[in-house]
Amino acid sequence: MASMLLSTLRSCPVSPSWAIYQCLIYPFLSISVRLSVPSVQTKSKKSLARPGMKNIVLVEGVRTPFLLSGTTYVSTLFFILFYLSLRGLLNKTGLPKDAVDYIIYGTVIQEVKTSNVAREAALGAGFSDKIPAHTVTMACISSNQAMTSGVGLIAAGQCDAIVAGGVEFMSDVPIRHSRKMRKTMLSLNKAKTLGAKLGLIGSIRMAHLAPELPAVAEFSTAETMGHSADRLAAAFGVTRLEQDEFALRSHTLAKKAQDAGLLQDVISFKVPGRDIVSKDNGIRPSSMEQMGKLKAAFIKPHGTVTAANSSFLTDGASAVLIMSEEKALAMGYKPKAYLRDFVYVSQDPKDQLLLGPTYGTPKVLERAGLTMNDIDVFEFHEAFAGQIMANLKAMDSDWFGQTYLGRKSKVGAPPMEKFNLWGGSLSLGHPFGATGCRLVTTVAHRLQKEGGQYGLVAACAAGGQGHAMVIEAYPQ
């Protein structure tokens, strides 16, 4: 394994400081993550309610089925997915269309014709035109930002009822002309004489026609996220075997949850001109043998990140109804959970791009006055299996905690018997702007199902950012 790791590092364009960091930290990261799933024990703890502060609750959460891009949603529109998630939320809650104070949606790759897609879809779904709406973007934690922005509006007394959510439509992303071609076309539009127009047309060369395709890459480093995940896995000594095992676990648990009807946030609907969709279509339990045949996807030939242990390009939308507890009860709703403390974190976008959960988890626990042992349900965003395993090893390292987190000891890794038990982004899919709402809704449902009291959501995002939130079960 050591020789393979050295080969990987030689093939990676890593900085000397990163190589030293890898060598220093590797001896501390020999933990073996158990992938078994025993039952969670119900605990009784104090509530996180605070005197003088509003209780903010999750009333309901829904999402469209998350589908592989280029499949059933391919002929629909970005706007339609968002609209359908809003309609699904209205149908499931019976919410009056004028009872919402504000609507916030997250998305990453925006459709240029609906730059404020939250407003356009809200109008299309029949919400009152008196309800303000805006769209936010924060990479993979865009809908997390939408939700917490809503929490802030309620906490500040500005609103009582918020609809938040997110959408991503990778089947039809905007593709631009090259910069030179755009410049020529804009000049052509301003040209006043036939001669000027012909001169501009004559200046066009074949190279100008090459399109600019969107890429899941960091602007600051020009490095794809998969490339970063591969280097991170190598630095933390995460083997290909560990990554494939975790990916298989995700798909197996997701299939089990889907078959048992546990994914109750998924709404069914008929895609215009296509079939009725009622479940995620990326859940595909395989075998270690089949997964082992795949070649490296990013750092070739020695990388360990493959198509099988990475999340896939996904189309989907999600929506949640968030209210003050007082408002929810006055309207006759039975909330699912309290939304408690949350934090956002940011670190080096090159060498620590995907370590958001490691940085966010101890901070949000400290704010809430909790420890890892108090958490009954963990839901972490699975961008890559290597990213998840690297975070778990970093959280379980005293050296990393002391050196990078300013702690006396390690954070501690979440026990796998509490971790992503209904699958995760590797298997369910990851529409960039919509995953946060899925994570929060899943925590609420798992707390109800498993009898736990506290749940923790954590996610990484492009730019080296991250989010973590504590959720408390609503008394049943």
UniProtKB/TrEMBL annotation:
- Superkingdom of the source? Eukaryota
Keywords attached to this entry: Acetylation, Acyltransferase, Endoplasmic reticulum, Fatty acid metabolism, Lipid metabolism, Membrane, Mitochondrion, Mitochondrion inner membrane, Mitochondrion outer membrane, Transferase, Transit peptide, Transmembrane, Transmembrane helix
SUPFAM superfamilies of this UniProt entry? Answer: Thiolase-like
Principal location: endoplasmic reticulum
Pathway given for this chain reads: Lipid metabolism; fatty acid beta-oxidation
What family is this protein classified in?
Answer: Belongs to the thiolase-like superfamily. Thiolase family.
Tell me the protein's name.
Trifunctional enzyme subunit beta, mitochondrial
| Species, as recorded | Sparus aurata
Q: Which gene encodes it?
A: HADHB
